[in-house]
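Input/output pair, single chain:
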Amino acid sequence: MNHTLSRRSFVSTASVVAATSLWLPRFSFAALADEPPFKISLAEWSLHRAIREENKMTNLDFPQVAREDFGIDAIEYVSQLFADKAEDKAYLADLKRRADDHGVKSLLIMVDREGNLGDPDDAKRSQTVDNHRKWVDAAHYLGCHSIRVNAGSSGSFDEQQRLAADGLRRLSQYAATAGLNVLVENHGGLSSHGEWLVGVMRAVDMDNCGTLPDFGNFYIKRGPEPEVYDRYQGVDELMPFAKAVSAKTYDFDESGNETTIDYPRMMGIVLKHGYNGFVGIEYEGRNLSEHEGIRRSKALLERVAADVAKAPAAAR
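Output:
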C-alpha cells in the first residue's frame, strides 16, 4: 500500500527548508553554532572506482583521504573493498592506527556478499548470520557503532518479512554482545519498500536493530517495467528506526543542486524526526570525478545545514 506524506508533514518539511533556494558558496560547516543540525561523514563507496579501477588508493588510505582531501573526520567502510581482511588482525590494527593518526572516527562497515539474511533455507540463513559475525567483530575492533546489512529474501510479502526478521534477530543478538547495531539499508527488492522494512523492524523488536535510509535506493524491481517506491515517503517511514543516513548523489546543476533528489525536502524529512547524527556522503555519479562529486555533495549538505540553522526556531 502506498501512503503519501500528510499535509501536516509536508508543511513541517517545507517550513524547515524554506530558505534553501539560495546558494552559499563560501559557507563553512565550522561557521555553524556549536551543535549543527547534523554531522557529515563519508561513505567509502564514493571512492570505489579510485580503489578498484584506478588503483589510486587502497582501503588503508581511506581515513587519510577523507581527512586531507575533503576535511571529513568520520567514515563508513565498505566490506567489498577489503573483503579478505575481516579477520586479519594486523591489517585491522594498521587501519585503526591510520584512522586514529588522522583524527578520523570509524562509524560503520557496509557489509555485502555474505548471503541473504532472509534466505528461505534455514541452513543458508544460519550460515549467512555466521558469515556476518566476523564483520561485527571487525567493526567492534575499529570502534564502529554498527554494521550495515542487506535483508535479501524470497517468497511472499509476509514470508519475506518473517524470514528477514529471523535472520536479523539472530545477528542482532550476536551484535548486542559487542554493543553494536545492525542496520538495514533499503537496497533493492522488498527492502526498498518502506512499509515492508518497517514491518521487519517491528518484528525484530530489538533496540540495536535499525535502519540506514538511503536517499537513492528505492527500486523494488528493475527492468523494462520497474517498480519504484516513492523516495520521500520511504525515508519518512524509515527514519524512526534510523541510526545512520546515506546521502546519495548522482549529479548537480550549475547552482549546486542535486538533479535527481530534492535535498532541501529530503533533509527536511530527516530532521523532522529529530535526527542529528551523521549523514554519509555516497556519490555514485559518472559525469564528475569521484573527488569532485564528493566535494559538491559536501557543499550541498553544508548549504542545507546553514539554511536550517538560519530558519526561525518555530519553523524547525
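The mean pLDDT is 90. The radius of gyration is 19 Å.
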